[in-house]
């Protein structure tokens, strides 16, 4: 009966939670790239591809953040604000003369604190995640404003050149460093999600909280960990923003939590929890980045771009629903009805 | 497959096929956003200049780009990067902030891209800057307000300023000039508040000023001025308002007496002259003037159209 | 004497307001199937939850393998080898079979999940039970019966010696039940102990060795299955002495005023035919899940029906929504009065007025305050509702008074037929009597009364005629003169036979 060895590995991927959508959307992504390349050959130029990858990187990073939380069946609305908070804290510390790397470390720790707060509010205080993270979103944004007396900071200075190159301007083997950062983060968090016990628990909590609890999973720890990962990634994205502009801006990261949701959902992560893989988040973030970049290069009227992007997002998710409507896991109610019908 | 077709059709319907003209020089205008009429006028100036240059045999491929959702440093940097990837030869830039874009501009300049600043410069040397001398313009606005108040017999009281934010150089300079005009007078200028250039937010701030007993209010850009004018209109009374930039809404507020006057920049000139300078620079000439003051015109009830 | 796998002695547990278990005992030997029987509310689930550590007990001793265990938790229970398979399956639908089986005890090698090992181990367990499922299947893609088997496999993989199964066969087909029983017998042969809770009494003959019976939180008896009969079992399940006196009013039953014909609304309402005559109270008895509430909801129009006709006073009424029903004069006092019967945050006045706004307002739909006040006062007076004033929130009243408000709002519009669903649940004794009096009053006035109740004494005390439902069908009707608790329970457990005798 052990037929698993003979099974086609591709088929295995298709049956894993939410993976089918990844394939559909990847095809869509390729088509999108082809279209943009047709509209403007510069799209595929070395210069642009480099830029494109660097533009996708922050979306991928916040996408990972949101995916972790979505898979547990919750949501994190504070991602953008934590990004802004991280940008401001690191810049403020650096303009006061602190070593950039020490400033980054302190910044990331403060972001982790927000993550822990989110987790505690959601799982221990039992606040609905929408409300809880809405609250921390406002608090984090407030911290971003207060850290430098409600002003954007000064330039972080020439001492921070290494820092800026590491996070944004530097190149390694012809590819921007930001891309490497995003890839490393993806490798680490994808490993955790797919190959460790914590990852398995994250899926379980999102799939059936009660069942996980009754099976001895420490749901508190799991949810808090997920929110910590989210805050950490948002923090890194904030450091990238700081390095990009060379100073701290209070409204950095505005709306990024929603872009993060878009990247995750396009990539097949379900907002209901328990479903989706990080490979999909790469595709989702890429779709988002490609659209912004491609439309710009194709000379699309600026005002229309948002509409176009929205339409394409809807189409790609709709395509998934249509293609996979026959293969959704059955709900208990339907199964009972079928069982009864079979009896009669 | 249906989905793929739909997507392709969607794109085709909405986008105009971009011309793949070769050999023409590429100039991209990058503004701060596309909300204000201000930028629309800059764009128009550029377009007219391009048309005129064409009749003279100079072929320029012109593109416009801006962040899609309001003032956003990171997004504007990416617009610059995209223009670069699109092989722009020269970029006309209205820089969001004085410092954030510097590193990118530096990288690109070293790679041979030429820059001309319109409306707002960054702290990095470029071929030319065409902008309003904001400090002078701000001072003019202040002088206008002072004159009117004196004429009304008011010699002291509170003055409120509705600025955009603490970062945009242009508006910060206007405020500085404005304050200079009031030096030595008995008027007290309150702590500046920021409306992000959003008319509604600015209106709330102005309304608070009026309740607080201000006798005069200054709006430092288009959105702020509209907000100030609307607040004065709603409150009635004798508060005097002055502003910056020109738009249909602002002209209307001047006509019905809610605003005293506005400093109309000349964004059209910025675009037009900027594009002319661009053509010269691309042809290899050096540009004589480093800073071109495109000036302001005081528009009040006497000359409003 | 054989050592018991588990032994419970003197176990008591109370919840606010109710003594769920009172010095109950139970023991389970290795290699046997013990059927735990009792009516709804007898305490079976509570007892099992205490055994598996989900609830703490108030007093009593739990012994596992002869050793006393204090402070049982789900974790401890699992370690001791006690596994419970709930009626509501607890699987993570998005995970694979192997992942579910190992949930909470994943095998980890050097930080990574040892997937191949877990898949192999899961496959072992499944094969051992002759369950043909690939451990890499996603649980959500499996049929319910297969999911149940996975739960059993999960329990066994934790080396559970004691398996508690709560109503395992309710959603299974005949073949699946056979498969399940085969597994149970195999487990029994291997020395496991199984506690089997079910209302399907006639399935017990295929697997039960002993039966333990509880009633009203009390331990009644334990017998060898082959030494007893279904009749005896039923009589133990319900054989209480009915001490309470119920206010009964005798009326001459008149014409049929309400009829339900061929009502079908899903699995729990199948081919229902009933009638109510003038001056008659009809009670609907049955177990939980028999479809009684669903029937009242289908009549009232809350749930859509597939087919069926409602006739009131000889006229056919077309009911598609509650509105239609109310307009025709058929009203429902629902089971959960705080959620479905009242708007607890509104005042009494508003609650009473709510379904009667059409009577209270003028042609421009403006509500006439004076009429509203009069209606409220009349209702409060007629039903003797105790309240400080009519503007207090409905939430502040006692259960009994709340119930009166729920009924009162219908009476204010002179309804013709009232359906009650568990009318005296959660109400103190004195208030219960008032509700009974109310029902009698309606009967006297010629208004039809149909009521659903799970309390046997109440049904026998108030009804003139009793209809018994089981698993969506009406299994019998008893005039009050012939009705006994045993007969009712017998009819209430007449499930359709799913197993053919050939496989016994």
Q: What does this molecule look like?
A:
The complex is a heterotrimer of chains A (344), B (305) and C (504). By secondary structure, chain A is mostly helical. Chain A has one domain (19-36, 46-323): ABC transporter involved in vitamin B12 uptake, BtuC (Orthogonal Bundle). Chain A has helices spanning 9-15, 19-39, 46-71, 79-95, 100-124, 129-146, 161-169, 177-195, 197-207, 209-214, 219-245, 256-266, 278-297, 302-324, 332-343, and strands at residues 171-172, 175-176. Chain A has a two-stranded antiparallel ribbon. In chain A, a hairpin with a 2-residue loop joins strand 1 (171-172) and strand 2 (175-176). Chain B is an alpha/beta fold and 305 residues long. Chain B has two domains: 23-131 and 268-294, Response regulator (Rossmann fold), CATH 3.40.50; 134-265, 3-Layer(aba) Sandwich (Rossmann fold), CATH 3.40.50.2300. Chain B has helices at 2-14, 37-55, 73-85, 102-110, 134-151, 169-181, 199-211, 222-235, 248-255, 267-282, and strands at residues 25-30, 60-65, 90-93, 114-118, 128-131, 156-163, 186-189, 193-194, 214-219, 240-244, 261-265, 291-293, 296-300. The longest helix of chain B has 19 residues, at 37-55. Chain B is elongated and about 60 Å long. Chain B starts with a helix and ends in a 5-residue tail after the last strand. Residues 13-22 of chain B have low confidence and may be disordered. Chain C is of the alpha/beta class and 504 residues long. Chain C folds into three domains: 4-238, P-loop containing nucleotide triphosphate hydrolases (Rossmann fold, 3-Layer(aba) Sandwich), CATH 3.40.50.300; 254-329 and 415-496, P-loop containing nucleotide triphosphate hydrolases (Rossmann fold); 345-414, no CATH class. Chain C has 17 helices and 22 strands. Chain C has helices at residues 44-51, 74-80, 97-101, 115-128, 144-157, 174-189, 230-238, 292-300, 322-328, 337-341, 348-353, 357-360, 369-383, 399-411, 429-444, 456-462, 485-492; strands spanning 4-15, 18-29, 32-37, 59-64, 67-68, 82-85, 108-109, 112-113, 162-166, 193-197, 210-215, 218-224, 256-264, 272-277, 281-286, 307-312, 315-317, 330-333, 417-421, 448-452, 465-470, 473-479. In chain C, the strands form five sheets. Chain C has a six-stranded mixed beta sheet with strand order 6-9-10-3-11-12, sandwiched between helices. Chain C has a six-stranded mixed beta sheet with strand order 18-19-20-15-21-22, with helices on both faces. In chain C, a hairpin with a 2-residue loop joins strand 11 and strand 12. In chain C, helix 14 runs parallel beside helix 15 (429-444). The two termini of chain C are 30 Å apart. The chains are: A mainly alpha (344), B alpha/beta (305), C alpha/beta (504). Chains in contact: A-B, A-C. Chains A and B meet through helix 2, helix 3, helix 11, helix 13 and helix 14 of A and helix 1, strand 2, helix 3 and helix 4 of B.
